[in-house]
């Protein structure tokens, strides 16, 4: 009972605080660096060196190679990143995770009292609490949580170290540690511990805490550290279960990288040690007692040496993954565009959803643009293609809608939250544009089947209107894809011109009807087309309004925004006159 109170409970409590502090710090770092990570990860290249640096930086920021690798699995699975690009990022992630070991090593600092964590961690905690009390939102609040997470992590580390310090003289504990000098047992112990806590940084921290007993030697620590590097692959392997074949291959690259490094360097170390009997100050190296800094050093050196060994063969590593999971005839367009693994870093998930929305925009706009050409010459194959595009746009909307709703439940910042809300409205507008494409197609089919031909005057008017609709569609798609605010401002004046053209064509049709130049049947088809074209321009206006981010207006209060744009904007009037002249029946 005394052992339970003096050691086990403090050890468990320390471990709980350590893991919570690491999680809090990592999550806050990801949130704070969200847009930065989003930009950095968006600049993927085929260069392994740049991929390595990217993986290193991102992992150092979010304090978890497992989280980075899971993100990489998600990127590869969704087609955002190629398998070859993933190799360099995974190597960098393995080195980047060593930063945590150096941070946790601070708790073992014995130099000056002022430099010990006991002296400055309480100050950090007080600063963090003060910031959390007085700052309610923004990056500074994220910084407060980062500081608090770090403080909790260090307190947990100190509790663990204090709990096990009494084991210095315990012969039973010493005999257990001696078992781990067997390389196979040591590797297994490190692997199992890391697999359980799902973090090599956490398991390395636990090992560092145990070094205060003075009973852990380099001979015991080295195999354990090697095993911890293999154990960290478990998270990515589990995550890849639901991934496509390339996603699974990315997880295997992570596993192979660590297994190869462990097998090569552990074998090399023991072979050389058997030949040369490495000694330091007359004591065998494997019998030297290791401390926290020693654990961090071994951890880091192993990772750097592994990269030096495997980096020249990165293409072969990719081929090994492809050989392990072979191609199949069924694997073509089954790639999952949206991967929920990216929810671990919401800013990146938002960026991916935006990219997929741009793909949906292209599909919907292609459908409508194609339907407009049917009046120049009906094509049954093109009609089938338009219906396929509309079905595809529907599936995109369903997938994006579900993805964005789930993403909204995560801890996203204000900017990303607004982006999610905008995207939910935008995908609805693009989906409706694809619906109107089919409506226009059906009108073209009816005219073709019934051999209906508009009068020459009506044909000329509809040709002008179709050109205006094609232009507003093109501008809207480009404005969204490029997030171009200046381009988006062209949409509203052109939408007004489309409305004017619709009203003039309606009036002219009534006049022709009175002169018996057109029939009522013509009128029904004309009314349907005018209604669809006007609705398309309205949806384009909604999309452009979402692209235009005006701080003084809510992104969804479009009626208020549009009313004021039309009320007295010189820029609007100039663009309106320009488009009115360009799309004139007299021109």
Topology overview:
Layout: H1 2-32, H2 34-42, H3 48-62, H4 65-78, H5 83-96, H6 98-104, H7 117-134, H8 139-164, H9 171-179, H10 183-197, H11 200-210, H12 218-231, H13 233-239, H14 245-276, E1 279-280, E2 283-284, H15 292-310, H16 314-324, H17 346-373, H18 380-408, H19 414-449, H20 456-482, H21 485-488, H22 491-514, H23 520-547, H24 558-568, H25 570-582
Antiparallel strand pairs: 1-2
Describe the structure concisely:
Helix content is 77%, strand content 1%. The chain contains 25 helices and two strands. The longest helix is centred in the last third of the chain and has 36 residues, at 414-449.
Report what the structure shows.
The protein has helices spanning 2-32, 34-42, 48-62, 65-78, 83-96, 98-104, 117-134, 139-164, 171-179, 183-197, 200-210, 218-231, 233-239, 245-276, 292-310, 314-324, 346-373, 380-408, 414-449, 456-482, 485-488, 491-514, 520-547, 558-568, 570-582; strands at residues 279-280, 283-284. By secondary structure, the protein is an all-alpha fold. It has 2 domains: 2-324, no CATH class; 342-582, Phosphate transport system protein phou homolog 2, domain 2 (Methane Monooxygenase Hydroxylase, Chain G, domain 1), CATH 1.20.58.220. The protein has a two-stranded antiparallel sheet with strand order 1-2. A hairpin with a 2-residue loop joins strand 1 (279-280) and strand 2. Helix 18 runs antiparallel to helix 19. The longest helix is centred in the last third of the chain and has 36 residues, at 414-449. The radius of gyration is 32 Å and the shape is elongated. The chain starts with a helix and ends in a 5-residue tail after the last helix. The model is unreliable at 111-115, 329-335 and 550-556 (pLDDT under 50).
